[in-house]
User: Fold this.
Amino acid sequence: MAPEEIAERLKEQFADQITDCAFETAHPHIFVAAEAWHRIALFLRDDPRLRLNVLRCISAIDMLEDDELVAVYDLYAANSPANGGTTWTMGPVCCVKIKVPRDNSHIPSVADVWPAADWHEREAYDLMGIVFDGHPDAVTDAAGHHPRRILCPDDWEGHPLRKDYRFPMEYNGIPAVTEFEQTRPVH
Amino acid sequence: MVADIVLESQPDIHADLSSEQISQQDFPTEEMLVNMGPQHPATHGVLRVVLRTDGEMVLEAVPHIGYLHRCAEKIGETLASYQYIPYTDRMDYLAGMNNNLAYALAIERLTGLEAEITERTRHIRVIFAELNRIASHLVAIGTYGLDIGAFTPFLYAFREREWILDLFESACGARLTYSYITIGGLSHDLPEGFVDRCTEFLDYFEPKIPEYNNLLSFNHIFVKRTANVGVISAEDALAYGLTGPVLRASGVRWDLRKAHPDCGYDEYEFDIPIGEGAKGAVGDCWDRYFVRMCEMEQSVRIVRQALAKLRGTEGQETRHKKGKTIKLPDDEVYYEIENPRGQLGFLVRGNGSVIPARVKARGPSFCNLCIVDKVCTDVLLADVAAIIGSLDVVMGEVDR
Assistant:
């Protein structure tokens, strides 16, 4: 099933929640609105013509020039063997993107739709700062209610993969540089 | 005399009590938090698992990762694609060739170089990817035996691995971090005599696999430690995004080399082994181990076919003129291949310059490790090592 057809099915169901699509690219994708994402995810997983049961990856991209963060969800359907075959085959492949503003980035968590999303969302929060609401492994601290960090220590400040990230000069007393005249880390 | 002594608070050992009832009467236990790692011989790298245990039973296991985070994705935004190849080696450091291949294919798809890769390059890439699969599975099997307590298979596996590393060293000079498969082709063509040496290795290695089965796979103690332990159902495996031998052991005959072939894999004949519950339930640790043994046999088959296909391609170019300086278009690509540990994916976003705007690596070990939360509940402490070993995680890929 081509990406255009998947986009058609989504538009039938969700009309204006599907904000944009791009197919003339090496990575055809569909932009959806953040508020409707959980319902759209359930549709993508459960619709009998799609059955996108595998979430391969959630990537977070920092579009500094547009002042936005983009979460990219790559999905595909692993179809059990049919017609006497023994090998599983790949069904429709879909990529869904969600744009959120950099200073107020909230996306509903889909960890209950695809359990694979759990760790991917924690990583997207940790490294990029996209907050996934309703994540099963969330904590509340100075930075609000957010998924628990996964790669950085729990008390790390900032989100390293952002384009405007400044590496901290010290962490719990450990200095970032060893030369005392330096005032910022040299990269 | 001894029979006259009556102790007040001992269980009546002659009564017909189950061992659970005896231990409840005699040993009241409380829950304990046990920290396993980050330095631990059985966690396959720097993985920390915090276990909440009640005596010997593990009630909950929470993995903590990030000890080997080397900011590979941030570095990807500062280097040209050709310069980034050595960083991909170091992610899953036991399958360097496969990692290089994934990134090279992603960039070639993004820039359109895909159409200009020669047949010789494709076949050589398959040879090295499959040899690396054998080498990687040998480490998985050897260290898994070591985790369980079997010391001998480890050395046998590494002895076979030396052959493969010698072959790699003759081709590119390195034993672990190859950077051999690059954008547009390979860094060097095959050296003289490689085909003969490779055939010699395959002839030597193929009869060794039944030997290992006799030594370890069907060993009574090994089977008792791994059968029916850590069972993962097929639905769980797909829902949690598990890939590779872990998924195949749960009975799902899914392999990206057949489902979405690239690099010429559709021209090769090979089978996909799956877990069949031969020693216990489908999807237990033994299945995950045995699938790797069977995959090595299939890899030998593929390499033989690839060596045969090389005849007639001598003289074809294996390096591309534009590989080193290619500019990435203002576009994006997500490309996955079947690594020894699962599906490694790269999302690369270009913005018109030689340096990408974003490189995201989807590590199979990262995705496979998330099942530890679910599978290590209500198991014995010794089973935790068996389960983590059977997932075959490499922390370099988990943390990147």
Summary: The first strand of chain B starts at residue 31 and ends at 36.
